[in-house]
Queue: 4 jobs
Job 1
Amino acid sequence: MDEVKWLMAREIPRLRRYARSLTGDSDAADDLVQDCLERAIRKRHLWRRHGSIRNWLYRVLYNVFLNRIQGERSRRHVSLDRADGVLTTPARQEQEIDCKDIVAAMQALPDEQRAAIALTALEGLSYDEAAEVLDVPIGTLRSRLFRGRDKLRELYEEPPVRAPLRRVK
């Protein structure tokens, strides 16, 4: 195994986490990572070696993701019942509901905003690194983050609709 393949293999857990945040489904995320790695191995000569291979792989993965959704052109349905692998310890009911609410709110965001938030908040990339991965100017990234966070706050903090309580006499 050459050095580049070894470096790529070390990034698989991070790629899976990022792919999961983009797709909302572990099986689709695994397929996305596999397609990303296949493309990266075929095109490894394009990696400039002066930057991080992680950022380059994130960019490849995001481009594969964009190619897929452009081909589909239909919104995908995310099953919130599939929380396998998300929590590593048993959660109390409130925590599980909160997690599902956050996942649902993330999936309701436009793809560009979800990708920006996932790279900065989940993967810990700096704004400069995330802008490079997404191939957008830093101002565009900041705008996507602002709008995405604002929408997340709106979706997540929205009080649940409940039927009014009736008094029984």
Note: Confidence is low (pLDDT under 50) at residues 74-80.
Job 2
Amino acid sequence: MVDLSAVMGTLLKGLANSRVTSDIYSRDVSLKYEEDPILRLFPVPRIEIKEVTISLPFTIKNIEQGPVQKDEIIKSIQKVEASKFADHLYSAVILKQKNREVLLTQINETQFKKNISKTLEKQLSLRVNYIEKALEGKKEDLNILLAEATRKELLSDPALAKELLTRLNQESLTKLLEQTTNDFLDTVLLKDAKKAIQTAQEKATIIDVGVTASELDGVPENLTTRITVVSDMRNYKWTQVEEVNGKPVRNLIPE
């Protein structure tokens, strides 16, 4: 099996390598020019590739879905989802309470969201399989887990706990958090997870192509495809931007 992306990558890599080979040759020749009293009067030859056009004929043999690690994809979005949940919780639980002005005096919004986000991220990292089950429609375990973790975090601050429990008893608070968490799962987390997985699956699609003469031999013209790639070979140069511990720090920038 030859993946189309691998074919294109190999072509572009070959172009870059050809430029490297050419520059190495120019370097070696420059040393000879420098040593010769006559040649040193002439400019050192150097081939600069401005633009390359490649027309690649191929035939599609098969299209299949490549492997996707759902657990790794879920892990990659946990931090963002935890931050979103902190915002969601603050709006749904804190800002909707009666006499919230008094309640807000006990809360540093930034620190509150930071603590909730950290708690949720930890729970999600420990229970990746819960999210996978939720994506299959079995979200009860995940909902209870996150609601309980959030409840403990909210009540860990004595002053905040006192203000909350003057408005809600323990049972009401638990139900409110389960409702809030369930709403977040439906409207945000699971949708984001599905989208991330779908995007990964699209990127993981493998297009098996035939590109060799033997593979294209006898294939009707209407069953072949052609890609024309125009590549602009850009030059980069090193530039010193600063010094650290007496050593120059340099970056590559386009000329």
Note: The two ends are 39 Å apart (CA to CA).
Job 3
Amino acid sequence: MRLLNATLGSLMIGLVSMPVLAAQGGNTECPVGLVSGMTLDAEFGPGTQELTKCIKKRQQVKMVVQINQLGTGTRPYALGNIRNIIQDYEITHGMVRGRDYEIVAVIHSGGGTMALKDEGLNGAGQAVTGRNPAQSQVEDLMAQGVKFYFCQNTTRAYLGTRVPLGGATAELIPGMLYTTAGLTSIADFQAQGYQYIQP
């Protein structure tokens, strides 16, 4: 019985001290806004606010996102992650694009088709459609300030048969930028202080 009482006493002390410990590790200034319109406690359960770690650096945040896969079906690789990052920065943490944060994405290798317009001309100059169902999502992210850079090595090797020779630029989503090589540009962005993200 003494062992049971001691065990229960230790358990009670642990339960009582949990919120205090959680509050020390959490950020009471967060969130600034609510993604779902509900408080964290209402959305996830009582005590969630105290258990939630929010980001500390909210100014001059720069990240480079690597997109080297297409994804599956209607879930294009990385684009949903970028949208979630923007929502976390802007809604949850009250950050402002251009002033507090910047996101660039580098598309290369297996992600190459994501840089193309959905409708255009193939390597033989014939009209094609359905080659990039994610075009509208890329355009939405561009409208939110994300800069997309497309690897010219990928253009040469991977897309040479998918777009007319000498006409690759016309087949890209308007607003798409180029980089000479995807991987070296990622290293260059990192050297400029961008944090690397591989979703």
Note: Residues 3-28 have pLDDT under 50 and may be disordered.
Job 4
Amino acid sequence: MFNKTFYSRLADEFAEVHKNFNPHKFILDVTRGLSDRSLNERMRNTSLVLKNHLPNDYKKAVEILQTVIPQMPGGYTNLLFPDFVGLYGHDHVDHSMEALKFFTRFGSSEFAVREFLKRDFRKAIGYMNQWAKDKNYHVRRLASEGSRPRLPWSFKLEEVIKNPTATFAILEQLKQDPELYVRKSVANHLNDISKDNPNHMLTLVNSWDKSHAHTSWIIKHASRSLIKKGHSGSLAVFDFEKNVKVNIENFVLKNTKLKLGDTLQFDFDVVSKKKTSQKLVIDYLIHYRKKHGELSPKVFKLTELTLLPAQRTHLSKKQKMKDFTTRKHFAGVHELEIQVNGRILDKRQFHLSV
């Protein structure tokens, strides 16, 4: 994304609005050592180079950035505009926060705004409480996403981890948001909180009206980590059975010896052993063999169902064993487990060769 074609377009746009901008010199500077830099290193380097090609007056530099960004294609590369603010705007908080609010409509200011939360949490969160009420859904989403305690690719917000109620006003405002983009952020924010402060998270969502479709969606997706762990409080939110009485029968792996690229396929029956209906969430865990030989479990969602007294239901699953950027497979014995409402009820082993 940050390549010579992009930088040529960017340089032309800056030259249009800033008479002292030298596009040729900018391209030479910003592409020096380009091949050795990762995606985010390229973005950060762009901000650093821009500092030397824009006015020293911060507010004038931001004004130029605000004129250029609407002319650029939307997407990840537009994160460089708030990145500039996150780097150089600390002495101009009010101006910077308004700039981040503007930039987020063209990409996202979620990473840059955390620099201000880290330095002056109270002031920054005050802005974000107001953003949660904004008419623009990108701005509302920034209020939630930027203040997540454990935003991926960013540092933890220790202020929120220590005091999860610090962002509750934002979440309260957005709990019925009509935009899925915003609701996903609220659910992820709550899921972050559940990793450090599950009781705080559950207390909040239990105070909400689950009959509202948008709120119910948020709560369900926010509870995913706790439900996978079988956390009793999260199970209770959706009336999943606490005292599960089921058997796993006819648990069969089609092939116990797989090669990378093959498909893991398994079948089993879930059989009720209770005289009343049971609401179940059924997952499976694969314990992957890691580089140094240890096993690391990964939980996968299979299904949710209500099992009637004495009912038997048959389930099956196929999963291709292939490498991802986030998961590399290693040879050896792996384990497969069936989990019902957080309880491991049966397991099998299979061997993977790579």
Note: Residues 1-109 form one domain.
